[in-house]
Amino acid sequence: MIAPIEKEIVTLLAHGDKKAITLLYDNYADSLYGVIQKIITDEEVAQDVLQETFVKIWRYAKKYDSSKAKLFTWLYRIAYNTAIDKVRSLKNKTEKEVQIDTSSVYKITTNSLNQDVLDIQKHLGSLDEKYQIVINALFFEGMTQQEASEELDIPLGTIKSRLKIGLRELKKIYNP
Known about the structure:
Helix content is about 70%, strand content about 0%. It is mostly helical and about 180 residues long. It folds into two domains: about 5-95, RNA polymerase sigma factor, region 2, helix turn helix motif (Rna Polymerase Sigma Factor, Chain: A, Orthogonal Bundle), CATH 1.10.1740.10; about 115-175, Winged helix-like DNA-binding domain superfamily/Winged helix DNA-binding domain (Arc Repressor Mutant, subunit A, Orthogonal Bundle).
């Protein structure tokens, strides 16, 4: 049997009545926060996820179907999925951040630069033109392989093959 408060919340959600959010928060926030904290231990992040959860609940309120799931089950899934999404998002963010203390970018000295390879454009001229064009586009014009493919009207697989062969030929010049 559905509790009267749950029935009232479902009715208010279906009609887009903002009172539903207050009732949802008063009756379910603690439980949903507990679900979120099982996934996210950082209190501030967990509170943000709880807020995001309620925003999603409001956004998807008209999609709730009581014949498919109980109200708490529906709320639980939204909270759980929002927390998982946040964990993935934070993981991706930290993986993509540059770690300055472990980076060697700022530690390069002119002594560590191989003076022999600074003349790469001169040696590039010794390659077949089809390899020159691809290497020039990718390294000196800063294009991605996809951009070079579109710009040069060459299939992406051919771009990759020519890059690999061209680099192999340059390696023969620099490292005989």
